[in-house]
Amino acid sequence: MKSSVQQIIHNEVTPLCEVHGVDLVALEWFSAGSCSVLRVTLDVPHGDPRVVKASNAISIRAITQVTRDISAALDALETEGKLPLEGGYQLEVSSPGLERPLQKRADFERFSGLEARIDVKKPNGEKRTMKVTLQGVKAAADLGDDFEVLVLHHGKPTSIESAKITRARLSEIHPAKAPKSKEIVPSGSRRQHRLAERERARAINEDHLARVRAESEQTTATDPAAEQPPMGGER
To answer: Cα-flanking dihedrals φ and ψ of residue 131, to 5°?
Structure first.
């Protein structure tokens, strides 16, 4: 659940991201004493960590531009007294990385089947980290705008109310690389294949030598001086 500060920042940052054509993946506020951290995670629209395409990654230029505008917007809110902050804060804007944060209902849905780590707030205020496999979401009439995240925990299906989730992120993903093209080995054993390649190389070499000899003989036939011994022999 977003705090009042997070909600104010979220309402300010979301339209800025839309203007720049980037997706606001997550907005996290970490209290760290007198200086807190505001972490904004951006990606290209519908970015997916399972896909390996450099063209699909958000550019450093886009992150720099959005960072500039977010910083200016938040400075204006503070000046107007609309951002109730106690102490300073550090702004961090970055791409999702290998452990993509999960905050939106749509993300819990589209990453169904992937492993995730979810921090859940217990009734006594303590935090519990669950390693789960996402199974989608389910709306509940008694939860209002919140929803239930369906998961497999230790192989057993269960659900987690979104209001109780303090932080969620996908487990580290290493996208599948494109397979390298392999030479097709002809039918027969590998030894036969090596012998065939050796014979092919020998034939190419012999053909080259034959052409060299033919060119040499042709030169000798058309240039009589080539048959005469060099000048300056024994007297």
So the answer is: -95, 115
**What angle, rounded to 10 degrees, do the helices at 60-79 and 4-20 form?**
140
Burial label for 103, CB within 10 Å (0-12, 13-18, 19+), is: buried
Q: What is the mean pLDDT of residues 57-65?
A: 92
Of residues 77 and 206, more confidence is placed in 77
CB count within 10 Å of CB 168 equals: 23
Q: What is the pLDDT of residues 135-154, one digit of tens each?
A: 999 987 666 678 999 999 99
pLDDT at position 225 is 56
Give dist(CA 58, CA 54) in Å, integer: 9
- Both structure tokens of 98: 């290998």
Residues 6+ apart with CB under 8 A from 149: 108, 118, 134, 137, 159, 160, 161, 162, 165, 168
Domains in the chain (CATH in brackets) are 1-97 (3.30.300.70), 99-178 (2.30.30.520)
